[in-house]
Design goal:
Oligomer: single chain
Strand content: 5-15%
Pfam family, one: Alpha-amylase
GO molecular function, one term: alpha-amylase activity
Protein name: Glucohydrolase
Structural class: alpha+beta
Order of helices and strands: EHHHE
Distance between the termini: 38 Å
Helix content: 10-25%
Domain Glycosyl hydrolase family 13 catalytic: 13-66
Number of helices: 3
Shape: flat
Strand order of the largest sheet: 1-2
Organism: Candidatus Blautia faecigallinarum
């Protein structure tokens, strides 16, 4: 099998709603994620995978956009 670019990378999945709250409303948000990118880089993270952030009926863990 041909080696792919991601085979030797560290990936980190983020659930935005609970990752980091930047404005104090108790819900994680994109500015909160952006504020922690340097920290993730220091940990050795190469790839950030964001879990779904769109409103959804949650029939498929948020991947089912309605």
């Amino acid at each position: 099998m041909k080696k792919q670019w991601w085979h030797d990378k560290v990936a980190y999945q983020i659930y935005p709603k609970s990752f980091y709250d930047s404005n104090g409303d108790g819900i994680g948000d994109l500015p909160g994620i952006l504020s922690k990118l340097d920290y993730l880089k220091d940990l050795g993270v190469d790839i950030v995978w964001l879990s779904p952030i769109y409103k959804s009926p949650l029939a498929d863990e948020g991947y089912d956009i309605a």
